[in-house]
Amino acid sequence: MLSLAKNLNIAPQKLKHIHLMGICGTGMAALAGMLKSSGYTITGSDSQVYPPMSTFLSDLNISVFNGYGAANLSPPPDLVIVGNVITRKNPEAIALAKLEVPYLSFPQALSHFYIQSRTSLVITGTHGKTTTCSLLATALYHAGLDPTFMIGGIVGEFGKNFCLGSGEHFIAEGDEYDTAFFDKESKFLHYRPKVAVITSIEFDHADIFDDLEAIKRSFRKFVALLPNDGLIIANFDDPTVVEIVAEAPCTVQSYGLDPSFTWALDNIKVENAISHFDVIKNGSQWSSMTVGLPGKHNCLNSLAVCAVMHHLGVEPSDINSGLKRFAGVKRRQEVRGIENGITVIDDFAHHPTAVRETLAALKSGYAERRLVTVFEPRTNSSRRAIFQNDYAGAFDSADLILLREPTPIEGLAKEELFSAVKLAKDLNGKRNFVAEAFETTDDILSRLKSILKDGDVVAILSNGGFDNIHIRLLEQLRETKGN
Question: What is the DSSP secondary structure assignment for residue 56, as one 8-state letter?
């Protein structure tokens, strides 16, 4: 394998054929699309080749090998991009090590091909990255700045999670997860930030971070990357964020609920899942904004966007126009359908804080309706007992709670694993909750069939496909209507 230092000196104009290992990941598929649009011949490989990513890549005329192996690298490509799903024991990685073919990780490639020639706007933090990035991309686009971006969700305005814009800015979703098997540092350390937003810092990703201190070390490294003339927009409602930016090498602007912050919220009102709020800047009324999302946390995400766009010279009226036209993000409070008067909503929330804020937002947006919540713990962190007690305080806005028992993590003892049965017991003992635990998705669908009624809102929370429960529930409701 060629050294990483040499890899980073690759001249893009000398490349023709680029191969992506782990191409069906959301970010990798988006990068493949960007590179294809830039004129490169793209191939890829993955062990899980199925819709929607297989269809997405096929529509781009990108050839994908089903499974990993040395044959996928013959003839040798000019460059290989290695996704973080790939281990050093992967047969294709072993074959790559024997070739004189340069390679990059996903974030290195993103930086090398697209970020280094643009002004990098990095949105980072434990919560709200995808929504804040999507709000910023939409508002900048409508303000005429036409940014380039890659985001971890499908942005309603564009119908995809990436765009090659003509403007000078790159919007990057700054993930703190590790980079690749040959680089265990956080992805966001490759993104060359000029302007950064830090939404929150909590413990997450228990499979790669030992504790909150380990996460804080990564964020300190990220903050240190900002140039002297850079800017950090930091959520000062979060004391850990305040701690991390204390030694920032650049200007820091605070945002949050306290009127003493640089940017603050006031007069939040939610009507029909649309939020209206006033923006206070340095203690004085600055503007009023409207965004098509319910909830305090979405107003805070929008406030951070206001701060970034003000820094870029955009007028308040143009910022508000962009926020008002925001068409949402798939899997973030996304209405998947309405049948029999029952609204089915899909959301990515899995961390206890995200669950709590998402449900509070939905309750404010659908205040007069019963909120039925279906939750599947799926991440490496949520399937561990580490958040067991925290989840007991995350469902206060729900009226009924149906919990899916997760697939156990191999090698962990029972006491180290999350228990849906225990959480249901804790919730029912806390106050007048109705919480139940289920072994299978089929059992949950059967229970929903017996309890749902006209006017209910069903919030389905999972960061995975959840056995296609959203479509199956809507089909079930349609069949019930027909009987």
Answer: H
Are 372 and 400 within 8 A, CB to CB? yes
Query: Which token pair is 229?
Result: 């003339």
| Cis peptide bond N-terminal to 52, omega within 30 | yes
> Using CA atoms in the order 357, 360, 362, 363, what is the torsion angle rounded to 10 degrees?
170
Q: What is the mean pLDDT of the chain?
A: 87
CA angle 50, 53, 58 (to 5 degrees): 90
> CB of 401 within 8 A of CB of 426?
no
- Superfamily of domain 334-482, CATH level 4: Mur ligase, C-terminal domain (3.90.190.20)
**Region of 282 on the Ramachandran plot (φ > 0 left; ψ -120 to 50 alpha; else beta):** left
**Residue 220: burial class (beta carbons within 10 Å; 0-12, 13-18, 19+):** middle
Q: For residue 284, give the 3-state DSSP assignment.
A: strand
Give start-end residues of each CATH 3.90.190.20 domain in the chain: 334-482
Q: What is the mean pLDDT of residues 174-182?
A: 84
Distance CA 130, CA 202 (A): 16
Q: Identify which of 143-147, 350-354, 475-479 has the greatest average pLDDT.
A: 143-147
Handedness of CA 446, 452, 453, 458 (dihedral sign): negative
Cα torsion 249, 113, 51, 159: sign: positive
CATH annotation of 4-106: 3.40.50.720
Please enumerate in sequence order all residues whose Cβ is within 8 A of that of 116, keeping only pairs 6 or more positions apart, or say none: 192
Largest CA distance in the chain: 67
Tokens coding 17: 């054929």
Helix axes 129-142 and 316-324, enclosed angle (nearest 10): 120
Q: Give the whole-number percent of the chain exceeding pLDDT 70.
A: 93
In this structure, whether the domain defined by 118-324 belongs to CATH 3.40.630.30 is answered with no
- Tell me: cis bond preceding 75? Omega within 30 of 0 counts: yes
Burial of 415 (0-12, 13-18, 19+ CB in 10 A): exposed
Pairing label, strands 195-198, 119-124: parallel
- Positions of CATH 3.40.50.720 in the chain: 4-106
Who wins on pLDDT, 106 or 326? Answer: 106
pLDDT in tens, 298-316: 899 999 999 999 999 999 9
Assessment of whether the complete model's pTM goes beyond 0.85: no
Query: Which amino acid is present at 400?
Result: L
Q: H or E element: which one contains 251?
A: strand 251-256
pLDDT for 5 equals: 42
Instruction: Give the E-state strand segments of 24-168 in sequence order.
Output: 41-46, 63-66, 79-82, 103-105, 119-124, 148-155, 160-163
